[in-house]
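Forum: Protein Structure Q&A
Topic: Joint prediction for protein chains with partners

I've read a bunch of threads here and the consensus seems to be that you should model interacting components together rather than docking separate models afterwards. I'd like to see that in practice. Below is the full input, 577 residues plus whatever partners are listed. Could one of the regulars post the assembled result?
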Amino acid sequence: MIEFKNVSKSYDGFQAVNNLSFQLHKGEILSLIGQNGAGKSTTFHMLLDFIKPSSGNINRNNNLNIGYMPEERGLYLKESIKNQMLYFASLHGMKRVEALKKIKVWMEKLNVVGDIEDKVESLSKGNAQKVQLIACLMFNPDLLILDEPFSGLDPVNADLLIKAVLEAKKSGTMIIFSTHNMENVEKLSDYVVMLSHGKTVLKGTLNDIYNQFGRSKLDIVGYNNLQKFEGMNGIKNIDIINDNSAHITLNDVSFGKYIFDDVTKEGYLPVFNQHYPTLDEIFKTKVKQSE
Amino acid sequence: MNFKMRQLFAVARHEFLNQFNSFSYWMMFVIPLIVVTALFKYVNLKFNFNNSNFINMVWGFSIPVLTFFFCLIYIGIIANSVARDKTSKLSEMLMSIVDAKEQINGKMLGIYLLLCFQIAFYTIFILILSKVMNNNFLFLFIGRVKIGLIVYSILALFVSLFMFLAITVQFSCFITDTSQISSATMPPMIFLLEFFSLSLLYNSVGFDGDNMIWIFYIICMWPPVGSTLTPSLIASGNISYLFAYSTLIIQIMIMYILYVKSIHVFKYGLLSNKKKNIFIEGFKFR
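Posted by a regular:
Agreed with the consensus. Here's the joint model:
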């Protein structure tokens, strides 16, 4: 298990991380979300023991086998995939034969276009990124740290990455990653920590977070008199898209029932969807509040 | 073998093979071979091998030249190696797997293996050349040098190289693009050139030993000054073995302190991505 207990880090008076606490268990995925400069990379650096926290405790087993894909990542361009993967494998204590087998399996799994003897400089950016991921995954790490793993990947390759991460989770790897892509957070995370200027503005499981906000979003399509809801007490904001459709943000979730009764009085309505705000919307709201 | 040792050997192996497969390394490797071959072929060497003063003087010149040559090659190699990790954006990932200490030690071990390979190759090459050319002047010459002086010179060469490598690492870990490699190698190369010139100077003119001995003792306590100067000073008869070995021991102790500091600087430098003035960062006390 990994535990951050009231961890803070400041540099020359600048508070990079402020009172951060979370726990991560075997086979769990935690996503760290926040704007640029929110303190995500600093958190990773403290977890990797690159830097010491100014206060608080980080509890983790020192013998953890860690796979780390930093935000600023690369490979030896002039070396072949095989050479450098074998080098990384040997640093993890893997045997050459076992490592070669794993590299080939992962290259196939992640659909890396190219031969194992190819030099990295001949690979496309996406393929190079997949090779970097193989370097982190091939030794079955106990802890996988991925800093912005989806940046630069097309949707097809992003899906391959998600699959690989979920497979690692299945085998018991603890995974912590940062991203700006909320859709992938929803697909992967067991636990979310949202940072803004180093402060934790939101944390919990996805369900906890959605429940905090409730079904405050309402989409209506096929009702002609939407203007009448403007200015009503239970409504925070109404965004009329055209004559008969609108996105509504509710102040009071129970007000949805009142609207439903009203708009269905006249009979059939093609769309009435009262739903949770997206993680993207929650993120923007929280950032605005913290500023 | 424990895990850290295995990591250290993995880094050393990677370093060794990288250089072994590099064209630029072999270019530097063969230059002395060409010079030695030319010596064997074209120079009619009529040495007086019974004149010990002459033997010592030649040795006193040869050792600084060899130290200069080997240090020059390996300063460039280690600077390039650290720069390659940094400019390939691999330093953070490597640091998450291997401690800074094992990385430095592995790189240095790789370089010492290359040095041993180079010396062994040169020896075999000269042996073969002597047979082919029917000229064994080099072995005759080495045979006349005192064994104690040879042992001390080799020890001093290893200490000098270690110190120059540690200094180079301190500068090169702040490299953010390959154009900065020359800036990182400049300070150690300036030191190297300075000590090399001084060695040659003291070997040829000597010094007033009685009055300057304590000043020299203090100067020679500092690595790599002492390790670069003392072999020539022993050869020219200006200092005793006791003097030389006692400074070497003090140098190794100081070198250890500086080495521990260089690990700290190396870790800091590898994790720093901002473009900085390499001279200032390398000399800064942390």
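Chain A has a mean pLDDT of 91.
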